[in-house]
Design goal:
single chain, 399 residues, alpha/beta, eight-stranded mixed sheet, two-stranded parallel sheet, 9 helices
Amino acid sequence: MSSTLPDDIANCVLAAFEALPPKFKPRERAQGKREWVPLSGIVLSSELEPLTCVALATGMKCLPRDKMQMANGTTLHDWHAEVLTIRAFNRFLIDECLNVADGNSSPWIMRSPDAELQPFTIKDDIRIHMYCSECPCGDASMELIMNEQEDATPWTYLSPVVPEETNVIPLHGRGYFSELGIVRTKPSRPDAPVTLSKSCTDKLALKQCTSLLNSIASLLIAPRQAYLNSLVIPESQYVPTAIERAFGLNGRMKSITPQITCEWTEAYGYKPFNVITTSREFQFSKRAACPGNDRIASNLSAVWTPYFEEVLIGGVQQGRKQFDSIGGSRTCRKSLWKAVVNVLDKAEEVPHFEAKAEMNYANAKANSALDCRRKVKEDVRRYVLKGWARNAGDDSFGL
């Protein structure tokens, strides 16, 4: 890998963000205070195509657990930049599949040549890279959080929710600094509403086994080529021991042994990404925006792919009420599901959706075509991500 590639990947995402209109960007407040926000992006490369940014997002919020049942498939559960970028990438791939189903060509997607359950696949020579302007929240960033504290005393708040299947209490994002290598929920103030959204570190660790595809997109696209090859973070955010502990072969992922993966279909495996650093800093990062008390967290989320761009507040499109049924992002559960069904109909690949008119989202995710994916998730949660409490309550909606 070229030593300049990390900077090239970062530059690709930063340039795509810079090209967005001002309304997508953090604002300057009164008295010289400025907003900051994390940025993440997905960049594709191949032998024939230059580095191309195909999805990006900013954000740092998520939905409290007590509001999950109000989401109805339209309000996002988690819009931290990394998670929202992966959702945007899934939407980009689905839109590319629709393009191919309409008879057009794509540099990234093609019809699957194998007799697989999914009718589409990412081309063999494609490599997937992810840039993050901040180290992902959770276990990979614990040392960074410790170093930021004026008072190094760890927050001691614990989520009261104990998952029945593990009997392990997931730690709040910044609680108990001494506990490392564990599942954490999203960080927030100790007095903030409880969330069961897992940290970006934990979600990325799981993606090393399930691929970047979510469950609904996995009905459409084969997962084999959908794994992340490299994760690029700023030099200032890189703590080697933390990265290895969170993601590496010698960290907590060592529990995923060949004896476990041999029971998975060949489409899945533990495929660790390479974490590399860049000298580039995002102009709206926590470090670049403003020092100390002059820095304010932005409540805006920007989402972009070559097919659409959105500004979100509260997990829905700006200007809509949070649980408005028509305010959903194109990356929300209902929109992604509808887009996949649309592609399968156009591609005349509909065996998995024969009863789709009567389906709700839970039925769609329970499809037998996803049995292998469920097995992978269950194994990773059982052996590595213990204490992973399901963020349930938003799967009874239909199309």
